[in-house]
């Protein structure tokens, strides 16, 4: 067996072993399971295989009927594109099964940091998986969240970068997941904002996942906390199911206006991805054949181009959102689609979209990239050596 393949299997086996004790507490299995045989029917040559990529948004978990651990990730990141590093995003997995409830998310950060330590050895892959870690803390604790955040920083060590507390809510109850209920208007809640204030004071960023009607609430939060780095996930969660099904022509201009207004807040970054999820209603996973990168790019382009135009390449970053988006397309197809959408970008813009913005936003070790940060403020561009 090839040494790298053996190392990947060894590291993956270790990750599986680490996860087994957490398995019983995981959420239910997927409503849209991954069909690898379906994905494998689409093979494409890799576009620009040498282009360095930081994937700033992926998960690792073991859930009933859905396992995605290090060996699964490495199969994807090793499928042809030059994935130099990744950022782990919290997924309500690997929590501790005992101790105070608010401290249980530490288990997930400890797990991700262990994966990162294995990958930093270089024996698993060239990809430095989990080079940045975004964990979860309950911000409704208000100022009482500080001991939790301090513990997370210790657990994640030099890799811990921020918090995600999802606030996805909609008036249509068929859209909101019963597994993670959220009350309306949480971003404006006084106690929640006390928690957000602690996040900023400790030098952490805040990743926010929501649905597109809530984007203006993020703009208000960003104005209230101008020194807090906020990362809008999944181009703002464009809905295309339930009450929004068949209304894409109505939804798009409203989403677009919200994105432009949010981009006026210089402390906000945007992630370009997440459109393969079921709630978007794009329906790639319902097709007889898996989509090509051209098909994915065509569907994504209006959203991606709107975000880049509004935020600029220096505050925009392509994200895989795997394995969630894996129900719709394979990893190599997704990144090919991103490269097709970025075809007209300048060299500097392309460097930002695929690696620079993510590396800056999450303060990743610059030695992972063949880039140097330009002098100036921390959200300036990265120039290629």
Strand content: 5-15%
**What is the count of DSSP helices, taking H or I runs of 4+ residues?**
11
* Strand numbers in spatial order across the main sheet: 1-4-5-6-7-8-9-10
Low-confidence stretches: 6-10, 12-26, 371-385
Which sheet architecture does the biggest sheet show?
Answer: 8 strands, parallel
DSSP E strands, number = 12
Instruction: Give the SSE string.
Output: HHEEEHEHEHEHEHEHEHEHHEE
Mean pLDDT figure? 89
Shape assignment: globular
Please identify the structural class as seen in this structure: alpha/beta
Helix content: 25-40%
Q: How is this structure best described in words?
A:
This protein has helices at 3-19, 36-39, 70-77, 106-120, 146-156, 190-201, 215-224, 248-263, 293-311, 331-341, 347-361; strands at residues 52-58, 61-63, 66-68, 82-89, 128-135, 160-164, 205-208, 230-232, 268-272, 316-318, 371-373, 382-384. With 385 residues, the protein is of the alpha/beta class. It has an eight-stranded parallel beta sheet. Strands 2-3 form a two-stranded antiparallel sheet. β7, α7 (215-224) and β8 (230-232) form a beta-alpha-beta unit. α1 packs antiparallel against α3 (70-77), α4 (106-120) packs parallel to α5 (146-156) and α8 packs parallel to α9 (293-311). The longest helix is centred in the C-terminal third of the chain and has 19 residues, at 293-311. The protein starts with a helix and ends with a strand.
């Amino acid at each position: 067996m090839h040494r790298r393949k053996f190392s990947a299997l060894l590291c993956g086996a270790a990750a599986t072993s680490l996860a087994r004790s957490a398995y019983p507490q995981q959420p239910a299995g997927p409503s849209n399971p991954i069909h690898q045989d379906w994905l494998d029917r689409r093979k494409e040559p890799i576009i620009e295989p040498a282009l360095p990529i930081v994937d700033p948004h992926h998960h690792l978990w073991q859930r009933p009927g859905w396992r995605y651990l290090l060996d699964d990730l490495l199969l994807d990141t090793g499928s042809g594109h030059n994935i130099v590093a990744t950022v782990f995003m919290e997924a309500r997995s690997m929590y501790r099964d005992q101790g105070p409830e608010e401290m249980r998310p530490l288990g997930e950060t400890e797990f991700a940091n262990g994966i990162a330590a294995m990958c930093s050895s270089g024996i698993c892959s060239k990809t430095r998986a989990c080079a940045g870690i975004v964990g979860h803390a309950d911000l409704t604790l208000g100022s009482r969240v500080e001991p939790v955040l301090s513990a997370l920083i210790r657990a994640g060590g030099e890799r811990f970068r921020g918090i995600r507390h999802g606030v996805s809510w909609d008036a249509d109850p068929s859209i909101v997941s019963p597994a993670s209920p959220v009350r309306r208007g949480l971003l404006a809640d006084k106690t929640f904002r006390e928690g957000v204030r602690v996040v900023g004071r400790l030098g952490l960023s805040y990743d926010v996942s929501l649905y597109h009607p809530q984007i203006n609430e993020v703009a208000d939060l960003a104005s209230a906390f101008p020194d807090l780095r906020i990362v809008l996930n999944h181009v703002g969660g464009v809905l295309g199911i339930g009450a929004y099904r068949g209304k894409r022509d109505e939804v798009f201009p409203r989403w677009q206006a919200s994105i432009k207004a949010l981009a006026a807040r210089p402390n906000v970054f945007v992630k370009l991805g997440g459109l393969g999820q079921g709630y978007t209603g794009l329906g790639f996973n319902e097709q007889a054949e898996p989509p090509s990168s051209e098909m994915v790019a065509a569907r994504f382009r209006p959203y991606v181009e709107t975000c880049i135009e509004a935020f600029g390449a220096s505050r925009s970053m392509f994200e895989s959102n795997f394995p969630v988006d894996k129900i719709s397309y394979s990893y190599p197809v997704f990144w090919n689609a991103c490269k097709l959408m970025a075809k007209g970008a300048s060299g500097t813009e392309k460097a930002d979209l695929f690696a620079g913005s993510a590396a800056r936003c999450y303060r990743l070790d610059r030695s992972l990239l063949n880039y140097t940060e330009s002098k100036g403020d921390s959200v300036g561009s990265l120039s290629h050596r």
